[in-house]
Queue: 4 jobs
Job 1
Amino acid sequence: MKENPFVFTDSNKRYYTYDYYGKKTFGGKVCKVPLDGGFTCPNIDGRCGRGGCTYCSGRGSGDFAPSPLLPLTEQYDAVRKIMDRKWKVTGYIPYLQAHTNTYAPVSRLRALYEEALALPGALGLAIATRADCLEDDTVALLRDIDKRTHLTVELGLQTIHDDTARRIGRGHDFAAFLRGYEKLAGLRVMIHLIDFLPGETPDMMLGTAKAVAALRPHGVKFHMLCVLRGSALEKEYRAGGFSLPGKDAYIDILCRQLEVLPPETVIGRVTGDAPEELLVAPDWTRKKIDLLNSLDKELTKRNSCQGKFVETIQKNG
């Protein structure tokens, strides 16, 4: 076994896991609890589009959150019970995940955020949103909450390439993302990326990672593109509009992306989860533990780690 050169770890991991961050920040394991606040999205209701992004399910990426018909407390308790059976948990981060959780009048947002913060065992708050849904009064509310608790804003980007964004019906371009990101300066922002979007090459994906690295966000979440039953993407996939890679190709680009990210950037996840009953492809994403182990082995084989090439990139401009 080659010696692990990575600093932010207490295991064999060669990237800055959210698990390690939680231990160092809160003194133990911290779990995000997915919740559905009953929001919609400007890419669904017609403000900038209809039907959502082509990869999106009807739950707006909140497939593991309980029903929005349930009160927030009941949603929270239901998910917490499952997590408590798996792990010894220090505390929880209520995670408003489904759809766009800043897309409402600030009065409604304030009431929901305060309700989430008051949940038992809550150590902070995570809010998933889009860069084009950050009104000035909403940002002021986020800054107020950040002063009182551990706030993370989870901001979907997916790709910096505007042609891809149009193809997947994203509803805004990279310039709009940058404007939204700038509004959140000083806050913890976790940027979401999707690899192997239709038409994207490994060099394009690496370019996205490099552009995100230059922003020096608090964190990044990586997702392998999954085709879900009932999504617009399913129709394109079944019609032969694009193909999906094998596990090895995903591991390769993931290693290359981690190598260009600053070592202090928290990696919220290195792959997404898709509900078993909805997943059309790729089938290998069902074996998450195998994927995580394969990533660890490949980084060790390369004698590599997160941030390996950051200094070189900075020197070369």
Job 2
Amino acid sequence: MQCIGIIPARFASTRFPGKPLALIGNKTMIRRVYEQASLSSLLSEVVVATDDDRIYKHVAEFGKVVMTGLHHQSGTERCNEALALINHDRRYTHDDCVINIQGDEPFINPFQIDNLINILANSDRQIATLVKKLESPEDVENPHVVKVVFDHAGKALYFSRARIPFCREDQNSHTFDHWLYYKHIGIYGYRISILDKLVSLPAGKLEQAESLEQLRWLEHGFQIHISETTYEGISIDTPDDLKKIPPIALGP
């Protein structure tokens, strides 16, 4: 099985315009993401998928990049178009996979990418993603932190911005001490055979309620397999997030 890593990178961002080109130390954010992803031992190649000439020209100086449309509503859609542009020689088959790597995770751990690929090594699996145990009660209640519950086979049952599971019998401050809560880490792996199907699905009611695209997939019967990770990098959503980066993380 071959696996390609695709990094969606758009210039327009409500909270941080031009985010991929923001400098983190002596390198742009998109370059740091690209270089970290390239350390994966299981990816066949890494490609940036952008909709902006400035990002395209910058990435072309050090790596592979394709220009995609402005109309995409999600990274999944952009990955699908990028794959079509890259795969004109049909070197990737329906049994291969795509890893959708977040363009605002400059310190992504390459072992997490390999973890997703190992999940998809089982040919029966369609989509893979990661979760991490939550460590504070505040995160459990935070609607910006997406929670997930899953079954004993590691298949996601539901994602929510609300607290799940909700313990009806114990709603006091000790709830966090008695239940495990998991945060969704937003990196996805897709079997190529189903990627086209995912982007052609109509929006579902659950997705519209929670504003989470993965609920569209669950609502239409697709399975999402999860794996637990203990690592969570620093995600850059706003310019203020750059201040959270410790100097030691920037390297020489």
Job 3
Amino acid sequence: MAGQTLAEKILSLRLGRTVEAGDLVVVPVDLVLAHEGTAPLAVERFRALGKREPSVPVLLFFDHAAPAPRRELADVQRALRAFAARYRVHLHEVGTGICHQVMAERWAAPGQVIVGADSHTCTAGALGAFAIGMGSTDVAVTMALGENWFRVPETIRIDIRGGGKDSDGLPPGVTPKDVVMRLIGLLGDDGATYKALEFGGPAVEAMDMDGRMTLCNMAVEAGAKTGLCASDGMTWSFLTEMGREAVFFPLAPDSDAEYERRLEVDVSDLPPQVAFPPSVDRIRSVEEAEGIRVDQVLIGTCTNGRLFDLRLAARILAGRKVHPGVRLLVAPASREVYLRAAREGLLEIFVRAGGAVLPPGCGPCVGVHLGVLGEGERCLSTQNRNFPGRMGNPEAEIYLASPATAAASAVTGEITDPREFLRGKGEGCEE
């Protein structure tokens, strides 16, 4: 029998028997997550099932509208607090951060099966977990039964190489966000529907967990069911840093695993990438986007609100000023990231540059508060989606880019190649 992909191996381990792509299986689930946007319906359905207690640990997050910007949202959160107290649900209050980041820091582990009422639950695949998004009703069933059915997905193997002859890392000024946007440009926004994207190759092996989470976070933007990275030394280092090394174990695909297809991506000459509205797969090089004026720049979200991202943005913004026609918003992905960024002086750099630092959470990404766009405005954002209305106004435009490109563009007032800034040659509005 052929070897197993990561998706097949994790589900086989969880079931105690061998499964392969295409099998229909009922799998025990380790963790369930929901946030204030998706939890109300899940709670309603769970109660309708008449269960006295959830059959699996449930994690509830206030991150999409936190603090609550309107009375009706405050009432939703009040009701969910009561539910959490009644059913011993693990409640993550306002200010804790985005569910996907906090999951990685506190909860997710290699070999787990995780179900979330949010499509970007796949972020936890960076730790070697089979993590998928489901609808609120399916999540309620999982809460009640502690299991759910899956079709074991076929896997597309993505081998990423680059950095030049002497390096397996990424070229200067190019980030994991640029790599995954390039991949989505190749696959299209439905090119991996219900597949698992398994990321590997020298560039991924050299990538830290922040970068791997960016890859897995955006797997769903190509239609994938989940994104996965092997559990290795980088995983152990991250879990150790979080004080959770006890949950680590190595987990990798078999060398003779069978894939639906293999795609090798050489990023040694890759320039920074930009996704044009209205869809994430409209990918262009930064050179093709240079000169497009922006009104707002957002650095943060579950895609790029981690410490690596903030450090990179601060490197560009240090000693410079945000362009007078631009609003710069910076939203750390979690309280842990916020505190570490504060200790390193990164938040002071953003504020002195003229930016606004937001509470840990989703912020303006979903268009609820803290940065809704005006009619005809244009935002360059590090988030993962740019369809019309995503940031609260269907008459506005959203471009997607890396934290480096976003920071450079905040200084110049237009989409700008960050590599000149990182070489110390950026002009910009200096202090």
Job 4
Amino acid sequence: MKIGYLGAGTWGTALASILANNGHTVIVWDRNPNTIKRLNETRKHPKLQNYTISEKIVYTDNLLDAVKDVDLIVESVTSLGIRNVFTQIKNLIKLNVPIVITSKGLEQNTHLLFPEVLQEIFGIENSKYIGCLSGPSHAEEVIKNLPTSVVSSSYSVETMNLISDVFTNPSFRVYPNPDILGVSFGGAMKNIIAIACGISDGLGFGDNSKAALMTRGLHEMKKLCPTKGGRAETLNGLSGMGDLCVTCLSKFSRNNRFGQLIAKGLNLKQAKEEIGMVVEGVYSCVAALELARKYNIATPITEAVHAVLYDNLNPKNVVKLLMQREIKTEFK
């Protein structure tokens, strides 16, 4: 297949490499001409220096070159950029091939999951082309061909299975799951809980605290998921619990490291600059909290993260407030 890939970050590089190694021709677009020039010349990503990029991957800063006459489009842009990029694409081509969303988050203001954003852009009638890939997967491990399992989903069974077939190889296993909204929701919410776990780590609270945050965080995710049309049980799988584990526990997690920096006293702006890449949980927590309040659903961990990031509350004081909440039965 000829595949257009949007985004040349670490995740884009890792997935584009899988596709190239699976025998496909991949054209990678990035909006930054300097990034494209460097990648073309060095065949090295600055954050993945030990890996040489396949010659089957072509780089361009011309969006039309990446989406014209391709068999599949894959995106790995940021949550803040996804609507703008696909609005441009709508003006360039008529959509007649599947799109694979790999970014994770909730759009601010609209509270839309990214498949819903694409539905809004291209129309409900083109839902069959919209799919996603999600689950516990860090670029730094995928690029080394370490065993990884993720989930493909779509509004269409045909597109869901196509995504699984295109990406699957001996070290990258893709399980189809038809609950596209549940799969997408898990990927969005886990980043918020990972920030909370990072704050806990930064405060030196230990494994007991982190286990509680992850478990209660999953409970929040499952309560809120049906408001977006997803099934709560989907979050027991790779796109929920699996992604939650890897994002809360891994040294590669930007959201976790961001939380640690906040606990050390950096403010929101300073911590984002220190990470140097987009921290999706910073934006998702705003949309998730608005969604929870809209449906009157208690999400104390999400509220706590929001209070620390946007209301400048001291993390230690927020933890005290969490621990002093009224005791209820576990799954209420």
